Amino acid sequence: MADMPLNNGTKMRSQLWFKVLIALFLGFGVGTLMGPDLILMDSGTAQNIGEWLALPGNLFLITLKFIVIPLVISSVMLGIADGNDNKAIGTLGMGVVYFVITTTVAITVAFFIAGLIQPGAQIAAASTADLVKPDIMAPDIGGRSVPEMLRGAMPTNMIRHMADNAMLQLVIAAAIFGLAMLRMDKEESQPIMDLMRSTQKICMTVVLWLMKYAPIVVFGLIANTVIERGFSAINSVSLFFITVVFALLVMLVFYALLLFFVARRSPIEFFKNSREVMIFAFSTSSSSATMPVTLETTIDRHKVSPGVTGLVIPLGTTINMDGTALYQAIAALFIAQAFGIDLTTMQMASIIVLTVAGSIGTPGIPSAGIPILAGILDSQGIPVEGIALILGVDRLLDMSRTVINVMGDMTAAAVMDKLMGGKHKAESTEP
Length: 431
Ligand code: ASP
Description:
Layout (H helix, E strand, L loop, with lengths): L9 H25 L8 H39 L3 H33 L7 H5 L16 H8 L4 H6 L3 H17 L2 H26 L2 H16 L3 H4 L1 H25 L4 H7 L1 H10 L2 H14 L5 H14 L2 H17 L6 H17 L7 H11 L7 H33 L12
The protein binds aspartic acid.
Aspartic acid (ASP) binds next to helix 14 and helix 19.
């Protein structure tokens, strides 16, 4: 994949980035004009137009989702089988440990900032009195033992996992195949290696085609989201909103430190090279749909070795959700504060463990973190109906936490590449 010129040079990419940025602002502008905040047109017409505006984006997302599975399988298999035994197992093992550590950091940041700002303390008891439990299926995440969770993560039937989009099982299955191929005679594994290489190239070619339409996609998706939801919901929980955004920014600073001190890269350059991926994650609210673009950027712009990228990005997209974990921890604290519940140290420790475990099982799709949050609240005796307080702002915060989820994965790839002895020369962004 690294030998495939995935762009026509820096100039085209920076022009594309500029168009995408303009599209983002236009989307917000048009959405605000037509949305529920200004009430300049009747909501039925606005929603109809919004649906049409979002159509190119939705078609785009469907196509991306459709290539995610072949891309994950081929990338993970090649990431392992193209390298050597120790390196592949080292990257996988270190990847899991790294993800658990950064997710724990994210939750600690969340507790610290939410404890300091106390966003829920301002919510009057009266406004929590008549909250209705939202219609959410809360998984019983506290009720599963570790051996049970490990058993559940193992692949059993590839076809069913593909049909269910069960990424964790697919990543593990691809890793097992990759390891087996690594141990075989080269001639015997060659046909599958070639097949995987072609599969990966086909997927990335589709990504390249799609990227050309990114401005239309971003414009339509953002306009439709604003038309559907508006901004007024922020008013009632503004302190919660600010707390989450602030904490997410602190996570970005944490990534900058990791990039600078561990990966030995310029964080500014890294963030600049990540601009498209960030806007993409923001507009789609889905780290899974963004994954093909994340993969392409990590190899072609951040110059992380394809082997490490092929393992760390699919694995990270599946199990590493720092933004989601941070959000869930702040939301849990916020709701507890709003209901006047003082969490014990034991409860906080349980929330950390459950959030880390929950983020592994959270799929990278819009609002996927909410049912897991419901499960966490339930397990700690915090009223699940408190989620109704934050549902109005969930989409905007979902967009923001997805950016951090994806940035966390790319940072992980850069750090892991360095730790595995990779040498990089990241592409300069300026023409
Ligand atoms: N939308 C998030 C993602 O795709 C998941 C979530 O936090 O709901 O990464």
